[in-house]
Amino acid sequence: DAMVIQNPRYQVTQFGKPVTLSCSQTLNHNVMYWYQQKSSQAPKLLFHYYDKDFNNEADTPDNFQSRRPNTSFCFLDIRSPGLGDAAMYLCATSRPGTAKETQYFGPGTRLLVL
Amino acid sequence: AQTVTQSQPEMSVQEAETVTLSCTYDTSESDYYLFWYKQPPSRQMILVIRQEAYKQQNATENRFSVNFQKAAKSFSLKISDSQLGDAAMYFCAYSNTGNQFYFGTGTSLTVIP
After folding, report:
1. Is A107's Cβ below 8 Å from some Cβ in B?
2. For residue B4, is pLDDT > 80?
3. Of A41, A50, A102, the CB nearest to B35
4. What is the pLDDT of residues B7-44, one digit of tens each?
5. Which residues in chain B have their CB less than 8 angstroms from residue A94's CB?
6. Which band of pLDDT confidence, cut at 50, 70 and 90, is reported for residue B76?
7. Å between B99 CA and nearest CA of chain A
8. For the residues of chain B, what is the DSSP string, one character each?
């Protein structure tokens, strides 16, 4: 089945140690999103790619970077994780002009910072 | 800027009863989309129902329906015949045609057996 896949599902890192989260999709959607979701809060958009065009939200910390080497994959790099970066990170995809602009979400990666 | 407001942080419903979750939004655009997403505890966020702003007819998906009031900028979700599996956090979301998504703060729904 076509889907959005996130690896790993759980990630433990140390304070200040760089970490990379990955997302892949088999939907062939041209837009991919990264969200940060803290406990009992709404997802907060960090950035999104429209094809290769990168769009950063104004309040996304510089500590967060993203790469999209091809249509199927997108990575979230946290250069120096702090305790406040512990959260669930959600990847989503969409294909504007189809499926009523719906976003399809992956299962998320829960990041723990020690 | 677009905002989405869910004024009910928590709701509860008796199994088999009906519950309505509220959502209001603010926009100056005429063409947009509205969604309700469900996020069970520790599980994936999934789409429940969606509505195109240009459609006057309210969307329905089995036991889920919406009451879309465009002039009032209101988009409520009605769950009929509530089931235990409906217990989750429900997020209302707005999307314009510019790939921007805006989520409300969520409503935690408890279903009482």
Report:
1. yes
2. yes
3. A102
4. 999 999 999 999 999 999 999 888 889 999 999 987 88
5. 99
6. very high
7. 7
8. --EEE---SEEEEETTS-EEE--EEE-S-SS-EEEEEEE-TTS--EEEEEEETT--SPPEETTEEEEEETTTTEEEEEE-S--GGG-EEEEEEEE-TTS-EEE---EEEEEE-
Contact across the interface for B47 and A40, Cβ inside 8 Å:
no
Position B70 scores a pLDDT of 94
Query: Per-residue pLDDT tens for B41-71?
Result: 878 899 999 999 988 899 999 999 999 999 9
**Measured between beta carbons, which residues in chain B are less than 8 angstroms from residue A108?**
44-45
The beta-carbon neighbor of A105 closest among B44, B52, B106 is B44
The ranges of chain A with pLDDT < 70 are 1-2, 97-101
**Minimal Cβ distance to A100: which of B46, B50, B105:** B50
A43 vs B contacts (CB less than 8 Å): 45, 91, 103
Give B55 or B88, the one with higher predicted confidence: B88
Contact call for residues A89 and A7 (beta carbons, < 8 A)? no
CA B95 to chain centre: 13
**Residue keyed to tokens 């709701």:** B11
Contacts of A11 (CB under 8 A, 6+ apart): A19, A21, A109, A110, A111, A112
Structure confidence at residue A58 (pLDDT): 83
Work out whether strand A104-105 and strand B60-61 pair parallel, antiparallel, or are unpaired: unpaired
